[in-house]
Design a protein that fits this description.
The protein is mainly β and about 425 residues long. The chain has 3 helices and 32 strands. The strands form 8 sheets. Strands 1-32-31-30 form a 4-stranded antiparallel β-sheet, with no helix packed on it. Strands 2-3-4-5 form a 4-stranded antiparallel β-sheet, with no helix packed on it. A 4-stranded antiparallel β-sheet has the order 6-7-8-9. A hairpin with a 4-residue loop joins strand 19 and strand 20. The longest helix is centred in the N-terminal third of the chain and has 10 residues.
Length: about 425
């Protein structure tokens, strides 16, 4: 049964449980949060779980999948796989009750895990989703009705990435943008309202598994795309490729999202490839790309596999994955300007993280939630607890609640102090 979101919101407001102004200010409407950098501005959050463990508000098992979560206007959005199809779903953020579920594509099967991979993005009364094989759809947030849908990989005569299409949609002005990896369309943009194609950019770059991001580069807003074999800067208005930086990796496994550092761009990859900080500057009618510093190969200081690092006060916090997708993973802090290591917690384990209130909120593949002090002075674990069976997704944080996506379930935890 579909419950109208307006009715739920009205009931909560009548009880005095929800502040509309606060909710809008503290939403997590897309992959990696409001600014697509894994950082929340929320404060006054807990440092320890207490004697009884984390305060679990609700836990549900809506279906399989690896899609992240978006939280907006008192609802949680994600993709799940069940009953032979991929569904976009909306949950009441306060209770976990399912508000609606809309099928958007057939079930997606893959040796690295079945189901959808990408996180939704929400703007106004629309939520945008990207399925495992590459169907991009816009749905109405109130009832889940489909506004429009495109099989973008098929339409551009491409092939899905080996491990599934993992790009989370990026919203820029009136456009929704995804990485396609087709021979004549590395990336494609569509009108948010109508679904009409706006532009394509790039050629002969496989999709990889990273999500594009809008960054300010050389006093110009640019869409930065980490494809399977190169980093590209794209003009969001014209769809013109402004510059490229080759970065080839085994199996096209560029996964982490580029990070802006004082106008420069940081990229990193696992599989023993390493990381680089790049300076992009105007050069005649185009742009030039220069390496500020690099740390590459088996001795690299930082190898982000499928986790995007967060930048706090000039320091990058993230995961250094050793070897070829191996089990040895360190948690580390490095100086973003120089690439020098501040500290390293050896064999911390694979996981993902976001930052808020001076702390790192980390989930690992064993399903634990771990709180770590975000400081360059050294590793300081504050607390940890078993929450899920397994997960690769970073948490979503909205209105003092942490939302965790496991392979089978979703859990909401109150972390208000």
């Amino acid at each position: 049964m579909s419950i109208p979101r307006t009715a739920v919101s009205a009931s909560l407001l009548a009880l005095g449980l929800v502040s509309t102004e606060l909710t809008r200010a503290a939403d997590w409407p897309q992959f990696l949060g409001p600014d697509r950098n894994g950082i929340s501005t929320e404060t006054d959050l807990i440092e320890k779980f207490g004697d009884d463990g984390p305060e679990i508000v609700w836990s549900i098992a809506p279906g399989a999948g690896m899609s992240g979560l978006a939280v907006a206007d008192n609802a949680v959005y994600t993709l799940v796989q069940r009953d032979g199809r991929q569904f976009a779903i909306a949950l009441d953020a306060a209770s976990g009750n399912e508000l609606w579920a809309s099928p958007v594509a057939p079930a997606y099967k893959n040796s690295m895990g079945d189901g959808p991979r990408a996180a939704p993005a929400v703007a106004g009364n629309s939520v945008f989703v990207f399925t495992g094989e590459g169907v991009l759809a816009s749905l109405n947030t109130e009832d889940g009705s489909i506004n429009w849908s495109h099989d973008v990989v098929d339409e551009h005569r491409g092939e899905p990435a080996d491990y599934g299409m993992a790009c989370s949609p990026l919203l820029v002005e009136n456009l929704v943008i995804v990485t396609v990896g087709a021979p004549d369309a590395t990336v494609a943009a569509y009108d948010q309202s109508t679904g009409e194609p706006a532009w394509t950019a790039g050629k002969d770059h496989p999709a990889g598994y990273s999500s594009p991001v809008l960054l300010e580069i050389a006093e110009q807003s640019q869409i930065v795309v980490f494809s399977g074999n190169a980093l590209l800067g794209v003009d969001p208005a014209k769809g013109e490729v402004l510059w490229q930086y080759p970065y080839e990796t085994d199996f096209n496994c560029n996964i982490a999202t580029p990070v802006s550092i004082d106008g420069n761009v940081f990229i990193s990859c696992g599989e023993n490839h390493g990381c680089a900080l790049l300076s992009i500057k105007p050069d005649g009618d185009g742009f030039s790309v220069e390496e500020v510093w690099t740390s590459l190969g088996r001795s690299s200081i930082f190898r982000n596999e499928w986790q995007t690092s967060v930048l706090l006060d000039g320091k990058l916090y993230g995961f250094d994955n050793v070897g070829s997708a191996g089990p040895v993973t360190h948690l580390a802090c490095i100086d973003a300007a120089t690439g020098e290591r501040e500290w390293q917690e050896l064999r911390f384990g694979k996981g993902n993280l976001i930052a808020a209130d001076g702390k790192l909120w980390i989930t690992n593949m064993d399903g634990e939630l771990i709180i770590v002090r975000a400081t360059p002075d050294g590793f300081e674990e504050l607390d940890r607890a078993q929450i899920l069976n397994s997960t690769r997704q970073a948490p979503a944080l909205a209105n003092g609640r942490l939302y965790l996506r496991g392979n089978e379930n979703i859990v909401c935890i109150d972390i208000n102090n």
